[in-house]
Amino acid sequence: MSSSRFFYTLALWLLLPYVIFHLLWRARKQPEYLRHIGERFGFYSARSHKPIIWLHTVSVGETRAAATLVKRLQARYPNHQILLTHTTPTGRAASEQLYGDQVMRVYLPYDYPFAVRRFLRHFRPEIGVLLETEIWFNLVHACKQSGIPLLLLNARMSEKSAKGYRRLATLTRNALGELTGIAAQTEADALRLQTLGATTPVIMGNLKFDIEPPEEMLKLGAELRQRFGTNRPVFLAASTREGEEALLLEALKKIDLPGLLTIIVPRHPQRFEEVARLIRQNNFSLQRRSENSSITAQTQVVLGDSMGEMFAYYAACDVAFIGGSLLPFGGQNLIEASTVGKPVLIGPHTYNFAQATEMAIACGAALQVNDAEALAVQLAALLNEPHRCTQMGEAGLAFARKNRGATECAIDLIGHHLVADCRT
After folding, report:
1. pTM of the prediction?
2. Dist CA 308 CA 312 (whole Å)
3. Dihedral (Cα; 407, 149, 202, 337), 10-degree rounding
4. Is 136 domain-assigned?
5. Which domain holds residue 168?
6. How many domains would you assign to the chain?
7. Longest C-alpha distance within the chain, in Å?
8. What share of the chain is helix, strand, coil (3-state, %, to 5)?
9. Which of 52, 57, 166, 240 stands the most exposed, by the fewest C-beta atoms within 10 Å?
10. Three-state SS for 258?
């Protein structure tokens, strides 16, 4: 073991008490963190008699982004089993909703050498794919030692993330060198990966552009719109993060728009109760999606406390704000709103989706605001000018269509290395 990985692994062992405490702490609001704990240390009961193609999709965003890729892999390799690994319970739940029993799903183990070796010995994947920005040093090295091709696909590397990896320069350079292949979302991502030690990253685009809104979600969206009221203006605050709801609610008080209905969908389900209390404290009349009841004319806010229905919420709204961007969380995925043809408002903090945001703004599919007050002004202006909403929605559809094709690139890369591995 190299000295850099030795000290990295030693640090992991020293952090083990914190790891256990973290699971217990998160389980206070999300008991699912205490389920399948053995998997996080490499102990599994699930087995497959088919050869395995393994994809690591950390949480909800990566799991949903992989949907088209998973379907294409299943069609191209019907005799293989797709294994999805996750880090969060919400990612695992999203996998269950999207794929049911069509895939296997487990937690990826923590990056202890014994745990990743047990994972690889148990499942013996023919190929592995890490999606977006998941570079686990012991896992990458173990795949290299075991002769398992490991690809980093749909890779994004913000400047903030790059700074973090630079603190572990030797580890990062070695890990990037041990990967079988790297395909980045954008030229900027590829350049940052190169500065960290990647040799020849290719550019594949973003898998999120290839996601097609499921027909059942579009149908549900039409049903929700009927419940909300077809004559009411409907504003969606999607994937909001802690602190943003308070800013939005305060700003909404200043909008003089009769009948306005706001849907707030927090990014993390463990915050549903907290956000419900906050809405009531701000004297807004509230109904919850989970009640599955008709929305009264007096209701001002609907809390989207459901999982896997974001496309339906987009389909049911007039204007969508993309959360994680009013405060410095880096923003969430604005592409889904565009694929449903809805105008997008987004805050100033978008480093997680920098290029997609710039492109959406440039083509007229999105408007960027500096704060919640400016958001309220733009929202009122859009809802008072339906033709602008229509124009922005059409620009969003064109923006999404123009940038498709990442799935095809990913399929080609996986196929090349999977065939090469089978021939050795």
Report:
1. 0.87
2. 9
3. 30
4. yes
5. 3-205+405-423
6. 2
7. 68
8. 55, 15, 30
9. 166
10. coil
Residues 109 and 237 occupy one common structural domain = no
The number of residues making up the chain comes to 424
Q: Are 369 and 320 within 8 A, CB to CB?
A: no
* Triad 36, 46, 412: Cα angle to 5°: 105
- Confirm whether 261 is domain-assigned: yes
> Would residue 210 count as lying in a domain?
no
- Give the per-residue pLDDT at 2: 85
Instruction: Write the DSSP symbol of residue 22.
Output: H
Q: Is the pLDDT of residue 369 over 80?
A: yes
Distance, in Å, from the CA atom of 152 to the CA atom of 181, rounded to the nearest integer, reads: 6
**The two structure tokens encoding residue 395:** 């620009």
Q: Which residues are catalytic?
A: 62
Q: Are residues 193 and 305 in the same domain?
A: no
Q: Rg of the chain's alpha carbons, rounded to an integer? A: 22
The answer on 413 and 395 residing in a single domain is: no
Average the pLDDT over 40-53 and give the result.
95
- Is 304 in the same domain as 220? yes
Question: Which pLDDT does position 313 carry in this prediction?
Answer: 98
Q: Are residues 89 and 117 in the same domain?
A: yes
Q: Is the same domain home to 392 and 412?
A: no
